[in-house]
């Protein structure tokens, strides 16, 4: 199959590209750097030629509410229009578990907009909603840091390793379109402050994690279970321990 | 991977010479490379320098594309390549070769150049085809060196040799050394190419922009776009479609089908069509900010029914590009291009220019169209102001509709005076060629303002548009008629003068400019209002003229009494009756001897009635020639009979809403009586020669001095008419029965005539009053009036002491009034004469007059002598 991976040079994208090439598919890693731009349309039509599956893993270069919405809408529209014209048979996109119940957060609204465009496009699709990646732990800690303390809640958290995500994405891309959503998550469920504390400990970060009880995610208030799958979800194989051990330990 | 080792026998070390040669080569190459500007110069220079020193057949440079992990030929040796004659050469040049195979992976892993014997590697399962192609053309060995950029492999330089073992370790060293320089040179070439391309694009866009800037017309746009596209791709065709005014469809605006020859029929069908915007293709393009590449077959398979897809397929187009033409936030149209290569920035540059040009042209076209229309409207205005008649207006309306809107007038209807009915005013029958009969039938119908369509139109502010097809579905008779014209819409507007509806106008067309329509309609409204006003004015003028003539006549003829004189008992009775009947609309019959003042009474009734503001119309039935009575009473149309050169309004019409006084009704011929009876019964009439009936509201007062009952008995007066008239009879007393009024009347007349004649009569002698009272007045008040007039003229001083009561002739003596007034002498004399006549003049003796009179003959003789009876009296 010919598979185009939009955002093919990113964290998940590069892994998915590698996975799919491993499986013997003709894979195009699309990104502005490789001359394929979903915002301007450059290279898009050529890339879509004879393409069977498109995997959209692109992320907005800006996270400001308006910019992010515009990015996902414009890129989504352009990409889907080109897919329709080229007769693409399967559109796979990565979304977020709980995206629909966190609509107070701008980024989540943008992702929902992206999902809506896909549903309405008529292109057969699979939307993969994933929990947060282990790779986000540091970022989560940083944005919650105040002085030497990290203020986090006991919101339920079930992070997944990016390798697992890439494996799931590759798997769904090669399967028949679901024309719906699937959810993926890590194998273990934590309280958010707990897992971050363990992570900081692992990397010898001196910051102290304080559980202050307010369930928020990147500043937006959320419910306790917003970030974890409500129903059935496919679980990754890499747990926290395993993931940690695969991470290079900082020397300092 | 056994070949991945130097397969060349070690050369004797000549380190000093080698070093020297290498340095020289490096410096020379360094110099060369700085000169390299053109893509293929690099290889030529490289070869020139190497060739003398080492053996090789040709070299190429390939570049890695990380997007799909392939490498592609970039720099080719067009002079010496051994494989140029190979049938698969072109295929090789345009192929992408995978990085994921052992040979290339080995090259990527190797730190320096690495050589292979083609024989050994070309048949490995994943090996690229060019190994075998080269081998087939006599090449035996390949030396590959990776080119690095920013620490990452960017490509390879392939060096081919037809002799195994050509690549000495010295050469390998040289290659290893010069690889970074070559990498730099290749990067420069890539950069240069990019720059050049950008430059080209810019100058192209600049050229195009200056071309476009001069574009004023559609044709110039077509030329400019053609020129630009031919620079991009020699043979591609294009079409620019424009969004039509309805905002729901698009039509080709300019096009060029490129170098292809096409069936003219298909082309002209495509050219004329209007395509709905939401056809599955056009809407996708218009909604997409980026150019979209379409595959004709795929879209057809998908079930897109846009008719042009089939045509394009038939014309041989497989893929086409669609880009919206958009200015700011407004879509103007679409550019369809038959190319497969998409240079997005360039296309968007072109399209934004075309959009601007298109917008400009459309604005220009609109302006000139507006100007044209305005010129026509101006002309129309002029024509209209000159229109005095309906025909003038019709000519002007037909012309303006044809010239500005290319349509015909379906109908103008005008609201009648009653404010309820609408009559057809003007229409163009030629519009309904296919349904002439129906149209004629329907157009003569009077409709009312409550008719469904009309009511909607009149209620609307700026008129309405009906879709014929939709209306047809609802099955109205009008819609069926409209359908026959084949036109899509009906435009109906109210015609208004000020804010008053005066009618409706109906037009049939596919599309009309609303603004124009309103402009024209307001002018038409004005013109119709003017014409109507003119017609009305003319009618009023005519009526006023007639009334005026009539009034003048009246002034000459009628008694100029403003009051009725007399307060006697008889007159009191009359007054009471007048006051009883005046308020009503009842017919009054005035009976009385001649000169008793019947007209005066009629006028008094009229003046006391609610109709007093209007003029009472009087007809003297006795004064009319028998054959003109009808025309006089009921009016006639122009041409109703010989001599009827103009329309004439009859007395009945003239007296509409007023009172008609029919004097001397007893003199009316029988034939006219029956007509009159009908009018009185129906309260409506037809003018002679007229088509329609006219409702009238007239109060009738009839008068006669005849005894109508006797006339009826004698068959001279219709009984039914008599009963109709005799609703409220008023008997006017003769003057002799109201002698108590004679004095008042005398004084009244004396005053009137002394004023008129300039004689001052201060006093009337009592003797005169006595004389007047004793007279029998067969001519009643009229006689009294004239007697006074004569007496005043004959009076010698300021006192009226003598009146000249007429001495009656014999003929008068049979009058009952006269007989009642005779003296004894007169009675005696006339009786004696009568008897003498009977007795044939025999005075005495048997059978004589004396015998009848029973007086002696002598006595009779002396009486005759005394009374002055001579023979001539009884022998007449």
UniProtKB/TrEMBL annotation, chain A:
Highest taxon in the source lineage: Bacteria
InterPro entries: ComplexI_NDUFA9_subunit, NAD(P)-bd_dom, NAD(P)-bd_dom_sf
Domain NAD(P)-binding: 7-172
Pfam families: NAD_binding_10
Gene Ontology MF term list: protein-containing complex binding
Gene3D superfamilies the record matches: NAD(P)-binding Rossmann-like Domain (3.40.50.720)
Record PANTHER family: NADH DEHYDROGENASE [UBIQUINONE] 1 ALPHA SUBCOMPLEX SUBUNIT 9, MITOCHONDRIAL, NADH-UBIQUINONE OXIDOREDUCTASE 39 KDA SUBUNIT-RELATED
Protein name: Uncharacterized conserved protein YbjT, contains NAD(P)-binding and DUF2867 domains
Automatic annotation (TrEMBL), chain B:
Lineage: Bacteria, Pseudomonadati, Bacteroidota, Chitinophagia, Chitinophagales
Domain Sigma-54 factor interaction residues, every copy: 564-793
CDD domains reported for this sequence: AAA
Gene Ontology molecular function terms on file: ATP binding; sequence-specific DNA binding
This protein's UniProt keywords: Activator, ATP-binding, DNA-binding, Nucleotide-binding, Transcription, Transcription regulation
One BP term from GO: regulation of DNA-templated transcription
Full protein name: DNA-binding protein Fis
């Amino acid at each position: 199959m010919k598979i185009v991976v939009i955002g093919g040079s990113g964290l998940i994208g590069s892994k998915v590209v590698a996975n799919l090439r491993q499986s013997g598919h003709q894979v195009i890693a699309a990104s502005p750097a490789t001359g394929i731009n979903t915002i301007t349309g450059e290279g898009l039509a050529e890339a879509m030629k004879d393409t069977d599956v498109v995997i959209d893993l692109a992320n907005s270069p800006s996270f400001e509410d308006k910019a992010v919405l515009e990015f996902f809408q414009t890129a989504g529209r352009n990409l889907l229009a080109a897919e329709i014209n080229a007769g693409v048979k399967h559109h796979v996109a990565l979304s977020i578990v709980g995206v629909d119940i966190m609509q107070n957060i701008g980024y989540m609204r943008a992702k929902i907009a992206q999902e809506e465009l896909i549903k309405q496009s008529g292109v057969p699709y699979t939307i993969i909603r994933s929990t947060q990646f282990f790779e986000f732990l540091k970022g989560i800690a940083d944005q919650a840091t105040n002085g030497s303390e990290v203020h986090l809640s006991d919101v339920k958290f079930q992070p997944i390793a990016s390798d697992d995500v890439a494996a799931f994405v590759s798997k769904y891309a090669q399967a028949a379109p679901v024309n719906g959503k699937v959810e993926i998550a890590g194998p273990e469920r934590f309280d958010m402050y707990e897992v971050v504390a363990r992570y900081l400990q692992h990397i010898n970060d001196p910051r102290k994690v304080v559980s202050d009880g307010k369930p928020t995610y990147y500043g937006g208030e959320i419910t306790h279970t917003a970030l974890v799958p409500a129903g059935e979800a496919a679980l990754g194989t890499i747990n926290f321990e395993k993931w940690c051990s695969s991470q290079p330990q900082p020397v300092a | 991977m056994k070949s991945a080792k130097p397969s060349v026998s070690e050369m004797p070390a000549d380190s000093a010479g080698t070093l020297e040669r290498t340095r020289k080569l490096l410096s020379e190459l360094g110099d060369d490379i700085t000169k390299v500007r053109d893509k293929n110069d690099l290889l030529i220079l490289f070869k020139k320098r190497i060739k003398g020193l080492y053996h090789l057949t040709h070299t190429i440079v390939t570049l890695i594309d990380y997007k799909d992990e392939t490498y592609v030929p970039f720099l080719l040796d067009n002079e010496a390549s051994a494989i140029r004659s190979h049938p698969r050469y072109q295929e090789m040049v345009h192929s992408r070769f995978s990085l994921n195979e052992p040979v290339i992976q080995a090259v990527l892993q190797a730190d320096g150049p690495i050589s292979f014997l083609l024989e050994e590697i070309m048949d490995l399962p994943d090996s690229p085809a060019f190994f075998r192609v080269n081998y087939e053309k006599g090449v035996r060995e390949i030396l590959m060196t990776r080119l690095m950029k920013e620490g990452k492999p960017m490509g390879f330089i392939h060096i081919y040799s037809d002799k195994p073992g050509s690549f000495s370790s010295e050469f390998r060293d040289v290659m290893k050394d010069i690889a970074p320089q070559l990498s730099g040179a290749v990067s420069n070439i890539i950069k240069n190419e990019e720059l050049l391309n950008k430059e080209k694009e810019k100058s192209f866009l600049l050229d195009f922009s200056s071309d476009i800037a001069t574009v004023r017309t559609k044709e110039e746009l077509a030329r400019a776009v053609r020129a630009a596209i031919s620079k991009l791709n020699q043979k591609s065709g294009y079409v620019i479609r424009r969004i039509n005014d309805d905002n729901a469809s698009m039509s080709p605006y300019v096009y060029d089908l490129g170098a292809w020859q096409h069936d003219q029929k298909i082309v002209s069908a495509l050219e004329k069509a209007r395509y709905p915007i939401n056809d599955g293709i056009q809407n996708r393009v218009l909604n997409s900010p980026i150019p979209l590449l379409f595959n004709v077959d795929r879209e057809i398979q998908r079930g897109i029914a846009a008719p042009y897809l089939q045509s394009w397929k038939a014309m041989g187009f497989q893929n086409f590009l669609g880009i919206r033409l958009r200015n700011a936030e407004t879509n103007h149209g679409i550019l369809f291009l038959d190319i497969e290569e998409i240079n997005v920035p360039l296309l968007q540059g072109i399209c934004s220019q075309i959009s601007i040009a298109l917008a400009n042209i459309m604005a220009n076209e609109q302006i000139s169209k507006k100007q044209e229309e305005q010129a026509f409207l101006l002309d129309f205005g002029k024509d209209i102001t000159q229109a005095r008649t309906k025909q003038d207006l019709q000519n002007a309306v037909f012309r303006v509709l044809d010239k500005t809107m290319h349509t015909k007038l379906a109908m103008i209807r005008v609201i009648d005076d009653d404010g309820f009915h609408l009559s057809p005013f003007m229409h163009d029958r030629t519009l309904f060629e296919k349904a002439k009969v129906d149209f004629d039938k329907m157009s003569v119908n009077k409709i009312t303002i409550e008719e469904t369509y009309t009511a909607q139109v009149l209620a609307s502010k700026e008129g309405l548009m009906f879709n014929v097809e939709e209306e047809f579905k609802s099955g109205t008779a009008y819609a069926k008629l409209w359908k026959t014209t084949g036109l899509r819409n009906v435009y109906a507007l109210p015609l208004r003068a000020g804010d008053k509806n005066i009618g409706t106008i109906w037009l049939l067309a596919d599309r009309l400019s609303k603004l124009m329509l309103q402009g024209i309609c307001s002018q038409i409204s004005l013109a119709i209002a003017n014409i109507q006003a003119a017609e009305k004015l003319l009618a009023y003028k005519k009526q006023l003229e007639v009334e005026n003539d009539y009034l003048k006549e009246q002034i000459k003829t009628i008694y100029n009494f403003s009051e009725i004189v007399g307060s006697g008992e008889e007159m009191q009775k009359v007054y009471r009756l007048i006051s009883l009947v005046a308020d009503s609309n009842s017919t009054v019959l005035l009976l009385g001897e001649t000169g008793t003042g019947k007209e005066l009474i009629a006028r008094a009734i009229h003046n006391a009635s609610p109709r007093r503001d209007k003029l009472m119309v009087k007809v003297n039935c006795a004064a009319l020639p028998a054959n003109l009575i009808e025309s006089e009473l009921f009016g006639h149309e122009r041409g109703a009979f010989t001599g009827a050169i103009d329309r004439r309004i009859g007395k009945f019409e003239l007296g509409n809403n007023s009172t008609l006084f029919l004097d001397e009704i007893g003199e009316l011929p029988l034939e006219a009586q029956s007509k009159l009876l009908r009018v009185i019964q129906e309260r409506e009439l037809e003018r002679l020669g007229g088509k329609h009936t006219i409702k009238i509201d007239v109060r009738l007062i009839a008068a006669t001095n005849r005894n109508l009952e006797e006339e009826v008995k004698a068959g001279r007066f219709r009984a039914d008419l008599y009963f109709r008239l005799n609703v409220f009879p008023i008997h006017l007393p003769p003057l002799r029965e109201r002698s108590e009024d004679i004095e008042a009347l005398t004084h009244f007349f004396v005053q009137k005539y002394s004023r008129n004649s300039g004689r001052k009569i201060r006093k009337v002698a009592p003797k005169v009053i006595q004389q007047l009272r004793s007279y029998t007045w067969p001519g009643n008040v009229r006689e009294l009036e004239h007697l006074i007039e004569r007496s005043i003229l004959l009076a010698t001083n300021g006192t009226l002491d003598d009146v000249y009561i007429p001495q009656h002739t014999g003929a008068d003596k049979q009058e009952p009034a006269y007989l009642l007034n005779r003296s004894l002498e007169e009675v005696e004399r006339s009786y004696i004469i009568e008897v003498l006549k009977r007795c044939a003049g025999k005075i005495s003796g048997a059978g004589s007059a004396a015998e009848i009179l029973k007086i002696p003959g002598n006595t009779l003789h002396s009486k005759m002598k005394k009374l002055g009876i001579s023979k001539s009296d009884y022998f007449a």
